[in-house]
Amino acid sequence: MTDISHMSQMSLIFRYVRKSRDGTHVVKEDFAKFQDAHSSISDVDSPKECEGCCFTYEPSLTGEVLGKIVLNEINSMGLLQAKCVGIGTDGCSVMISEACGAVQEIRKKAVNAVRCPCFSHALNLSLSMSSSIKEVRHFMGGIVEATSFFTSSSKRNAVLQHVLKGQLSGLCETRMRRATQ
């Protein structure tokens, strides 16, 4: 996804099962990082030689390249690819193509992994579609107004910090679509 910073970023999020202190198993999900996909291409795809005299390099984010970027990140974090059992992506063809998608590239190393739809995309689509409902637009607008009210004043923000023991953060314009007009 190209965002407001004009970079093609992938978000890497890991979901895993962990045994809690009381012996029950708990599903955890942790954000690992935003990965600039174009800056990572050189790690997995080298420039092609052109007529023996020069190098041309047109960065292309193919499914194979995206899959290799994910595998490189998994390796760099010291995680075992063989323990990967799921791959969450959106439904675009570069990710899920049976012939050359990122999921297929990842499954070459993580053979037990199955593709799972990414629920953040479903949430974003739901929010986008619900923005046609006047009441939803007004509700979302109210959230934006309330956040702006507190964050635009250091005194109000200090009171909120004291009462809530935390701060409000605004909508992430690069990740979620806001339609409050």
From TrEMBL:
InterPro entries assigned to the protein according to its UniProt record, in alphabetical order: RNaseH-like_sf
Domain of life: Eukaryota
Protein's name in the database: DUF4371 domain-containing protein
